[in-house]
Amino acid sequence: MSKGLSSFVIIAIVVVVVLAAVGGALIVSHMHGSGTIPSPKPQNTTNSNTTAKNVSSPSSNLTISVPGTPLPYSKATNTVYITLIAEDISQPFNLNGTSDGKMVIYVPTGANLNITFVNEQSLPHNLNLVMNNTPIPNSADIGLNGKILFQLGTNMSSYQYSGIMNGQSVNGVYKDIQAGYYWLCCGIDTHAESGMWIVVVASSNVSAPYVIVN
Question: Which keywords label this protein (predicted)?
Answer without folding.
Answer: Membrane, Metal-binding, Transmembrane, Transmembrane helix
